[in-house]
Every structure is written in C-alpha cells, then in structure tokens.
Amino acid sequence: MTLLDRLTLFSPLDFASLAFLILAWLWIGWRIEKPPANRPSVSVLMAGFRRDWMTQMVMREPRIFDAQLITSLRQATTFFASASMLAIGGGLALIGNTERLTDVARDLDLDNAPAFVWDIKLLTVLLLLSNAFLKYVWSNRLFGYSSVLMAAVPNDRDAALASPRAQQAGELNITAARSFNRGMRATYFSLAALAWLAGPIALIATTTITLAILYRREFASHSREILLRFPPEHGPFPATNTSLAHPDTDKDTTS
User: Fold this and answer.
1) Are 255 and 242 in contact (CB under 8 A)?
2) Could you point out which of 4, 33, 82, 114 has its C-alpha 20 to 30 Å from the C-alpha of 172?
3) Domain ranges, ordered by start, for the chain
C-alpha cells in the first residue's frame, strides 16, 4: 500500500480538523506575541515588568532575591522539560503497541481504523510534545544566560555598564519567557490533539476549547486586569521604552 493509498484512510474532515489545530496553534501564538497596541496580552505586559525587574535589580543590595527568582524560573523549565520527555517516551511506546488502542476503540464503539491511522494521530501529539520539549530546554538555557548577565551587572549602580548589562539581562529574560510560553502552548495543543483519537469532531471541539482558554487568559482574564492597574514603566512594548536606567539617570535620553 502506497502513501497515497494510506492517506485515503483519512476523511476530508480529518484533514480539516488537523489544519484547524495547526492554524489555531500558530494564530494564537502570533496574537499573543503581536497584540494590538491598545490591547496588550498578559505575556507582553509581563515583558514590561521583567524590564522593571532589571531596573530594580541595579539598585537592590544585596541581590539575593534576584538570584533566587531566576533559579525558580529555571526549575520550572526543567520540570516541564522532564514531563515532556516522559510523555514522549510513553507515546513512542504506545506507537509500538497500537493493538491496545484498537481494543479500546472497539470497546468505545469508535472507528476501527488500521494501525497506520492510530500511528499518525499519535505522531501528531508527539510532534507537538517534541516542539514543547525543545522550547523548554532552550528557555532553560536562556534563563541561564540571563543569570550570568545579571551576575555581570556591576555592584556600583553608577557604573557605566550597570544599566546596559541589566538591559541585556532583561531582554534575555524576556526571550527565555517567550520560549517557555511557546512550549506551554505546544503542550496545551498536544493535549487537544489527543482528542483526534476519538475522531475529527472531537479534535475540532478540543482545539476550539483550548483556543478559547488561551485567548481568555491572555486578553480577558482577571490577572490581566490586575496587571493593568499599575502597568510596567518599561513597556509593555520594547519600542516604547528601551532604556533601563535607574532613577538617577535622565529617562529622556531614550530613543
């Protein structure tokens, strides 16, 4: 049986539901990271607060709190990376034993599809989990880079390199958080993709629910309202304020 013959095992609705999953995943990521100027997402607001954090770090003595905070962020990425590895391992083991899925489908009166169909559906989940794993690992490394730059900030707040080093650390911190958020979204949609095992209608339903949950959390949640009560000084968009100078410096020098 050729590949084209095997693809005929999937219905047009299967292809449509898979396309919907991928487009929803890409669209919500773009909307969260590139929101309208008058409606920033939680992630963009937090990027501004991360810049504010680096501003305060320059003036804080000692900086033990900052070191503890960056350590906790790295621990979170490590946890999710490990969880993703376990999930990938479990999925690979299941691909090698799809007979169990066939038995479950028969018990639930689902479509008794060939093993190839189950393998493709599981591979879709595994690809999303693999993407999440790579994002978590890269996020962990970027948080490590950020911690090194934080350590390189001179203890003297009036030193010429104090603010530029803090700015570098802040931007790396934001990049690490962005990668972590992308990993989280891939994890969410990998869970939604599991519903494809129950059919394309179930996949469309879970994708829609996942999309709605992510949109609400980023643009219509109570936590976003709290963040907007006192918005970050350095943001929320990088172009609005690129300087991390402390209060002793002239903020009008920003370009």
Assistant:
1) yes
2) 82
3) 13-29+40-242
